[in-house]
């Protein structure tokens, strides 16, 4: 008789142990001795208590003996979300950090990105960055590629092949006086963006989507920005770009767009601020500009490593959160020298503490708050929180199995610690050796299965 009430969901895997995640109201919620079931579609089918094992096994039709039991110092947390990373800059990550933004772009970035017309070169770099970020626990990445359509499509294919959830953007720029061979005409940019979107969507990759990507206002004419705003609106697409990263850039935008009230107003004028927009940096946004972000539903990506490494500025996250603007974290490779979201967590905490040193009244961020930014906050910033970001029934099981006591990893446990302490130690001290398994949509994607040609 129980079979008639049994859900039609077919359970693929059940895990028992500690689960740590964020909710809208709680920065860190800890579920001890919990049971979580994943169906054959990779979605979370149920979450219950360990003592409910017999009942849940009967309800969902799985064998209690098939449950995977986590070890004492293990826990599951949501996969981390990198809301801003330049896949095309990965080859020189960790170097070339000796110039401010605009000179850095002209000297290092644009010459390297121009090489991605060579698909073999692109394949090598993109394969490395996808594998590295997945190994580091990034289950979702919002990627900048280059102006080259075919190479950008290749990045989408590689992310799909290795099982990473990704937004992939073909970069658009019709203004570049410093490296003249690395730009498009407005018409080329519009046409190639449309081709990129159509071909990527036609692939029907389950986890990879296109994102409309004007590089930033200084590299785009108003005509191109308007075209890209229309493309995004007509196709209901995500949008990504940069804003207010350093003072020289902000001054340049005022010179290039004198009719606009602010940097934010430039994007707003061309319909590029929507509830599916994520803008990187925002160090110098005014309160009025943050209000416009909130009103439009646009998001910010906080990239603290890059902000510091290029001496660009420091974003006051507390002020952004007080304005109720959606916010996630980004590595911003290669302005940020690390492709690890754990580094982004640590640099975000460091930045907040420096602001407190400068102003003792500043409300310093807690590690719990930054944990939420790296997971649920990132999914909200990318408007993917209906699919991922925390452990809720119906969402995809994007998760990291963390072993704080993993052999050879950099954490020494001196005594038994509660789960919250284990989480804090992992965020502050851990690395990829503590990440035992990486799940995207229910599938363990690390170690890698190399795709076949």
Automatic annotation (TrEMBL):
GO cellular component: cytosol
Record EC number: 3.5.4.3
Family annotation (Pfam families): Amidohydro_1
Reactions catalysed according to its record: guanine + H2O + H(+) = xanthine + NH4(+)
Location of the Amidohydrolase-related domain: 76-445
UniProt remark on cofactor binding: Binds 1 zinc ion per subunit.
Known pathway: Purine metabolism; guanine degradation; xanthine from guanine: step 1/1
Cofactor(s) it depends on: Zn(2+)
Taxonomic superkingdom: Eukaryota
Leading EC class: hydrolase
Sorted UniProt keywords: Hydrolase, Metal-binding, Phosphoprotein, Zinc
Family affiliation: Belongs to the metallo-dependent hydrolases superfamily. ATZ/TRZ family.
Function, as annotated: Catalyzes the hydrolytic deamination of guanine, producing xanthine and ammonia.
The name this protein goes by in its record: Guanine deaminase
Lineage of producing organism: Eukaryota, Metazoa, Chordata, Craniata, Vertebrata
